[in-house]
Amino acid sequence: MTHFEPQTMGQQFGRRSWAEPWKIKMVEPLRVTDRDTRERALDEAGYNTFLLRSRDVYIDLLTDSGTSAMSDRQWAGMMMGDEAYAGSVNFFHLESAIQHYYGYRHILPTHQGRGAEHLLSRAAIKPGQLVPGNMYFTTTRAHQELAGGEFADVVIDQAHDPDDPHPFKGNVDLDKLDTLIATRGAANIAYVSLAATVNMAGGQPVSMANAKALKALCERHEIKVYLDATRLVENAFFIQERELGYQATRIADIVKEFTSHTDGAWSSAKKDSLVNIGGWLAVNEWPLFEELRNQIVLFEGLHTYGGLAGRDMEAMAIGIAESMQDDHIRSRIGQVRYLGELLTDWEVPIVHPVGGHAIFLNARAFYPQLSQDEFPAQTLAAELYLDSGIRSMERGVVSAGRDPKTGGHHYPNLELTRLTIPRRVYTQAHMDVVAESVKTVWDNRTAATGLEMIYEPKYLRFFQARFKPRHG
Ligand SMILES: *Cc1c(COP(=O)(O)O)cnc(C)c1O
User: Residue whose CA is closest, atom 1 of ligand 1?
Assistant: First the structure.
């Protein structure tokens, strides 16, 4: 596996051990623009990087969702698509890949992660029930609220502190959850929504011990635990690296042990699983599965394709297997860390420890002159694009949205700009260019004057909101 002793991997990381376990077979040219072009493009996009045209982007770190490069094996799988309406061969490949690697009994494909979140929320939440979670995720919480649920944050406090070095900042605070159960009653809790890793906290992992203890607590109260498994493979890497007793355990075995502490899961396969589209939902209990299988035909498609083509399911089945390989995940996270180490060496404020899929710039520390009503993280994403054409995204007050009860903004403690690294797409030289551009924006930080929101959509506003400069 590696010529390093497993215990020293953490220290050696990012120096020499993680070279990509693949070589490049096909390339896609990148377009470099000048500053005038970028100013025009950003103005047309309402200062929202989600509204830029990708041809105006140089290095695209908007998201790691659906942006991975597929392998030659996956492309070969695409040619083996069985496009039957029902009972496609590729569905059965996908079903056995999920059963084998994640260990759940019953599975449904969905067009992407939110399709699965929608079905599970409808089937498992009664209006008025609480849904405790280890921090929120945008689409997850939106579907829980649409189904009449109320999100309750039970992540440990350290997750909200960008500088706290806790190795498992995604952990559930079991005391918080226990108090919630005691005060609101187990019957008023729909289920616990556990995410591994926690995207909004900076891609922070959950420990195996925490997952196990959570399951034990929930079992005592007959509460189910459903897992957002979107980045569980990345989470498994951190367990292998940091949790006592797992240094010699294979990633695939860690994943399987982790899921054994949950009752079901959903996933956006556009992340860990190395495909451009797709998702799934899996549970162990039959009556719930029957309900989900019944609902899927209304919203996604028949239960053997769920909104996907046969070829998509084949690519996903192969991608799941590739994602579990230890050398794959080590180089994936190694690249993220490499960028983090450059920025840390230059004293640029980022969330520590560096998580699995992205570097999160601490926009509050960039722009202490801006209040959250002036959208510091959105401003930082705009400045970075203007400097170099690198596209990042906001994870702060815009993403947090409004409180459905009061109508006011949620004001999250974390005001972050995310540089999300697609899997198997960019090289180390791209990471150097990114780091240098971030450094330039950091050096010019005192000049920033913030943004004003001039259009706000009702749902998931960060995708489509428009802004203009406050002074300009
Ligand atoms: C992306 C994501 C989702 C939603 O999945 P989509 O495929 O984008 O619909 C859910 N949870 C997490 C943690 C995600 O990152």
Answer: 268
